[in-house]
Amino acid sequence: xxxxxxxxxxxxDAIVGFITRGRGMTVHAQDCPNLAGGVIDNERTVxxxxxxxxxxxxxxxxxxxxxxxxxxxxxxxxTAISSRQANIVKAEVTVTEDxxxxxxxxVEVKDLNQLQGVMAAxxxxxxxxxxxxxxxx
Length: 137
Fold this sequence. Notes:
By secondary structure, the chain is α+β, with helices and mostly antiparallel strands. The chain has helices spanning about 35, 75-85, 110-125; strands at about 1-5, 15-20, 25-30, 45, 60-65, 85-95, 100-110, 130-135. The strands form 2 sheets. It has a 4-stranded mixed beta sheet with strand order 1-3-2-4, with no helix packed on it. The protein has a 4-stranded antiparallel beta sheet with strand order 6-7-5-8, with helices on one face. Helix 2 (about 75-85) runs antiparallel to helix 3. The radius of gyration is 17 Å and the shape is elongated.
């Protein structure tokens, strides 16, 4: 069983299995854009649920919208993520000429509760406007 990168499911998300042609089963979040957009044939979906023993960290993409960039803001965001025992595995930081920004992070979390804690910690930072989970590639 593989987890679909198009929707990055983590324990706590509602999930569905999809029987692939020649590669076994992939697990998607129920709100995966591919499921909603009809990309995946619904006749090949199966009910699945998280195993109790699932404790490995899984990657999740988040977008952090910045109202005003400032020195130390990236450090504040990094500290907020690590304070929730999550790990950053990828970061893309973009600042516009008017000093606003959109930062994308891929963080490893063990479940939905940890992800929500990470997002809440980032949301509490001065100059952060919004934090959202990113679905799709």
